[in-house]
Amino acid sequence: MEFFRKTALAALVMGFSGAAFALPNITILATGGTIAGGGDSATKSNYTAGKVGVENLVDAVPQLKDIAVVKGEQVVNIGSQDMNDEVWLTLAKKINTGVRQHRRFRDHPRY
């Protein structure tokens, strides 16, 4: 009986371990802006918006790999003042496509 109990417990743990530890998938759609700004020196106050790419930003936080599978997509790399209707429409289309491709949402009747 003890052998059966240990075997059942091991099977239960193994069965749930894959589902319990699956990391969520996150896609960052980057547009540049202040967060992606960079300058010639860390001591000077001037910077250029949209200078750093999304992959560099994601790589700068290695702890992200512990909590999610993070993918970055550089939609544009511009300053906030240069956001326009075309960029917003591109973002909206990419979001809609991503939601439709995600299985959880794709199988839902609302999408």
TrEMBL record:
Spell out the protein name for this chain. L-asparaginase
Domain (L-asparaginase N-terminal) spans 25-99
Q: Which residues form the signal peptide?
A: 1-22
Record keywords, A-Z: Hydrolase, Signal
Question: Which example biological process does GO assign this protein?
Answer: amino acid metabolic process
One matching Pfam family: Asparaginase
Keyword Signal assigned: yes
Task: Tell me one GO molecular function of this protein.
Answer: asparaginase activity
> Under which EC number(s) is this enzyme classified?
3.5.1.1
> Looking at its record, which EC class is this enzyme?
hydrolase
Q: Which residues form the active site?
A: 34, 34 (o-isoaspartyl threonine intermediate)
Q: Which domain of life is it from?
A: Bacteria
List the Gene3D superfamilies. Answer: L-asparaginase, N-terminal domain
**InterPro entries reported in the protein's UniProt record:** Asp/glu_Ase-like_sf, Asparaginase/glutaminase-like, Asparaginase/glutaminase_AS1, L-asparaginase_N, L-asparaginase_N_sf
Q: Which family does it belong to?
A: Belongs to the asparaginase 1 family.
